[in-house]
Design a protein that fits this description.
Strand 1 and strand 2 form a beta hairpin. The chain folds into two domains: 136 residues, Aspartate Aminotransferase, domain 1 (Alpha-Beta Complex), CATH 3.90.1150.10; 235 residues, Aspartate Aminotransferase, domain 2 (3-Layer(aba) Sandwich), CATH 3.40.640.10. It is globular. It is an alpha/beta fold. The two termini are 42 Å apart. It is 44% helix and 17% strand. Helix 2 runs antiparallel to helix 12 and helix 4 runs parallel beside helix 12. The longest helix is centred in the last third of the chain and has 27 residues.
Length: 405
């Protein structure tokens, strides 16, 4: 019965244009990547789909730092952090990350996790006990949604960026602990949360502000220090989660907050306590990544990325204006995430296939990842792209637009 049940559901998903498929990357993460699928020979595609925003995933300095870390600390950690897996590399990285966030969070401490998903589960389940209420933006990442659902706290959701609704929810709340939870850069839309206004609400209603900066860390703010730096925020009420597998080019995530909060996570967060620590070589290499992000090369890469964002948006607005009957819409985003909203699932898949036929890899994102009726191509840019790469993408979209029925 189980197999038949799953096959029926799979066929239903296929009919709705919701079936997911994997591709196999045969070469390192880069704008041009060799990819295979379904047993077919590998071919080179120009990719606009990774979150490697600064182009560091295959940076020679990080490759060497990773190898150096393996030579110094070995291949694996061997145990969880609370047994024997917490190495000098992990400790040093946490010190670096705490210093990184110190301008925004007084007396900050940091805790390193294997993934951002685990970090968010840990945060919300450890802090969101029965005495708390979690207030969540409806477009928050799945890891924040799942963490809130697993927590013992009451959860209230507010419409995307609707702070009037949030203020009313906070005013009516009677629990002693209030946790406002938001993406900083929303992963499927690319827009920014109004963090200054959210922090003002936290201060007004004696709440805490949890910020998931997965897509802002390394990319925005002075020296790439993220969304808190971008908005010039400084408060003890801030709890910050940043991921290290996107702009930082490697893997893992961290939480930075008041030392008492970090200690409580060590004591009680099950996704931290019961997980084998990430290889120390990764932590060792991440310390080099922070040096690159915060230095002159990081500034140069962020400037290149901003030029590409401007180029793409300018050209896509012109393309959309030339083909109004298609109903395409470019999301309101100033970040490296540039969603082209198509609407219908089948139409989004067809557009992805049309680009694929031209050697362009841009994924179609469909419900439940995004709301029904807003299927899209999630275009992501990297500092490793060139202006010619962006032009090729626009030309490919223009070709698809001309051939669209």
């Amino acid at each position: 019965m189980l197999i038949e049940h799953l096959n029926r559901q799979r066929l239903e998903r296929e009919a709705q244009g919701l079936q997911r498929q994997r591709r196999i990357a045969e070469s390192p993460c880069a704008p041009r990547q060799w990819v295979s699928q379904g047993g077919q020979p590998a071919r080179e595609l120009l990719a606009f789909c990774s979150n490697d925003y600064l182009g560091l995933a295959n940076h020679p300095a990080l490759v060497e730092a990773l190898a150096e870390g393996a030579r110094q600390f070995g291949a694996g950690s061997g145990a969880s952090h609370l047994i024997s897996g917490h190495s000098r590399a992990h400790a040093g990285l946490e010190d670096d990350l705490a210093a990184w966030l110190a301008p925004s969070i007084p007396n900050a401490a940091a805790l390193y996790f294997c993934t951002g998903y685990l970090a968010n589960l840990a945060l919300l389940t450890a802090l969101g006990d029965a005495s708390a209420t979690i207030f969540a933006d409806k477009l928050n990442h799945a890891s924040l949604i799942d963490g809130a659902l697993l927590a013992k706290a009451t959860m209230q959701r507010y419409a995307h960026r609707n702070l009037t609704v949030l203020a009313g929810q906070l005013e009516r709340c009677t629990t002693p602990i209030k946790l406002i939870v938001t993406d900083a850069v929303f992963s499927m839309d690319g827009d920014l949360a109004d963090l200054p206004a959210l922090l003002a609400l936290a201060e007004r209603f004696d709440a805490w502000l949890i910020v998931d900066d997965a897509h802002g860390f390394g990319v925005i703010g002075a020296q790439g220090r993220g969304s808190l730096s971008h908005f010039g925020l400084h408060s003890e009420r801030l709890i910050y989660m940043g991921t290290l597998g996107k702009a930082a080019g490697l893997g893992g995530a961290f939480v930075a907050a008041d030392p008492s909060i970090i200690d409580w996570l060590v004591q009680s967060a099950r996704p931290y306590i019961y997980t084998t620590a990430a290889p120390p070589a990764v932590a060792h290499a991440l310390r080099e990544s922070l040096r690159l992000i915060g230095g002159a090369e990081g500034d140069q890469r962020r400037a290149q990325l901003q030029q590409l964002i401007t180029q793409l948006r300018t050209q896509l607005f012109a393309l959309i204006a030339a083909h109004p009957t298609l109903g395409w819409r470019l999301a309101d985003s100033s970040t490296a995430i540039q969603p082209l909203i198509v609407g219908d699932n089948t139409a989004a898949l067809a557009l992805m296939a049309a680009l694929d036929a031209q050697g362009l890899w841009v994924p179609a994102i469909r419900p439940p990842t995004v709301p029904v009726g807003t299927a899209r191509l999630r275009i992501t840019l990297s500092a490793s792209h060139s202006a010619a790469d962006v032009q090729r993408l626009v030309d490919g979209l223009a070709c698809a637009a001309r051939e669209s029925p």
